[in-house]
Amino acid sequence: MNDTNNALVWRENVVLSPPTEVDKQADKERFLSVLNRSPVHVPLKTLRELPAFIRQADYSLSAAIGWDGCHYKVISLNPSALYGVAIDLGSTNIVARLIDLEQGTMTTTCHVPNPQLAFGSDILTRMFYAISTGDNVLHVVLTEAINQLIEDLVKAQGVTMYDVVAVTVAGNTVMTHFLLDLPVGNIPVSPYVPAIHAPGFVSPQDLDLKINPEAIVYVFPGTGSYVGGDLVSGVLATGLHLGQSPRVLVDVGTNAEIAVGCKDWILVGAGAAGPAFDEGVAKIGKRAGPGVIYDVAIDPSTYRVELKTFDNLPPEGICGSGMVSLVASLYKTGLIDNHGTFISGRTGLPDVDGKLGFVIHDDGMRVIAINQTDIETFMFTKAAMFTLFYVLIGSVGLTFSDIERLYLTGALGTGIDPDAAKTLGLIADFPKVRVVAITNSSVEGAQALLLNRRLLEDINTITGLITYKEMNEDGDFMREFLSARFIPHTEPERLRVHC
């Protein structure tokens, strides 16, 4: 009997002594006595297989053992492989990673658009759909997408769905409810109460997952309607909860979620952000995808534009990170002032939809341009995100200079050029050594738990440390918001970070 690692599911080799006229222990008891763990659950299906497995293996076999937070569980006998899947259950995209639990490595990753987008691009619309229809179609399409993702992962690795013996899932509170097929009717109305905060371990069958039926499945906890398992997983991945000095995690996806804290406390705030930087800002705004612009550079002397698009395809529109770089370039080249207003008389500012604007692409077939209304909407969003950050840390008596490390994550969080973000006053002027970009902290935390079951204690610690601050009711927010609607700010000193 041996532990090969600290994974949520691991292999143990056991060597049994054969029964004799003197030793007539039942097969299960004989097996458990050598396994020497307690308490251990042996599913009936596994128990039915045990006698034949023991004898065919000449009393020397291996077992996949899992930990469900309370019990050890015998998942399978003589497993050919042990794989886990870490899932970030985003409202826009679902990301999944296949993890070799014995080697401790990621083998394959896949992502797909969340099929719930067909029922609404935002969470609120989906909740109202579920409430009005009373059906569970949002759960059904979600689990179908997850099953397809897992199937794609195992096929790419040359293994089977049965080899998937552990799954960890991190998503916001509403997405978690849809996954678990729980009612969401009380979440969008005061006092905003979810059905559950901490789902913990659930059965694969209860989620309609087509993996090993005895697999260990863990769903990350949230601590409120706006603090979900994705943020808890992100805190786990960054180690924010272990720091002696304050650290900040900024997760910008569909919403902006900001956590600030250390080993003694964590304060969290949330607000709208992601869609307002792309689809919500301009007619040309699009979510990141093939052909979508993610970076814009403008020559200050000729106003010539250089674009970068995903997959180097012809431009189709512009995503959030592209909007940030575009507005920053417009400001640095003197095409807009610190109010975000186009300066009339400048070369390259044609009439766009009846207002001054700027054309970033025109190939004779497609014109991609931004006008003054687009810039104004962007400035509102920029101000809201910075103010959320500023007010949150100020509410605990901190300044930007007190922040030891800034973690940027999320689809928009890691796509933004930090220099462009600093130019606009979207984030403070943190030294590069203090800024860490993590593509997806939610899936990173889910992967970490797959490989280290002891992190369950850390998750409990994190949820106990978190306090949610309601920004909509904060008087400082609106006052600071008005000051932040300038480039970079009406009081630039507030953006400075002293080493």
Offer a quick outline of the entry.
The protein is α/β, with parallel strands linked by helices and about 500 residues long. The chain is about 30% helix and about 25% strand. It contains 13 helices and 22 strands.
Notes on the structure:
With 499 residues, the chain is α/β, with parallel strands linked by helices. The chain folds into 4 domains: 9-77, Ubiquitin-like (UB roll) (Roll); 83-219, Domain of unknown function (DUF4445) (Nucleotidyltransferase, domain 5, 2-Layer Sandwich), CATH 3.30.420; 239-275 and 378-495, ATPase, nucleotide binding domain (Nucleotidyltransferase, domain 5), CATH 3.30.420.40; 287-365, no CATH class. The chain has helices at residues 27-35, 44-56, 123-133, 137-157, 173-180, 229-238, 274-277, 320-332, 372-394, 418-424, 441-451, 455-465, 475-483; strands at residues 9-15, 40-41, 60-67, 72-77, 83-89, 93-100, 105-113, 164-171, 200-202, 216-219, 247-252, 255-261, 266-272, 292-298, 305-309, 317-318, 351-352, 355-362, 367-371, 405-409, 435-438, 466-468. The strands form 5 sheets. Strands 7-6-5-8-10-9 form a 6-stranded mixed β-sheet, with helices on both faces. Strands 21-20-11-12-13-22 form a 6-stranded mixed β-sheet, sandwiched between helices. It has a 4-stranded mixed β-sheet with strand order 1-3-4-2. β3 (60-67) and β4 form a beta hairpin.
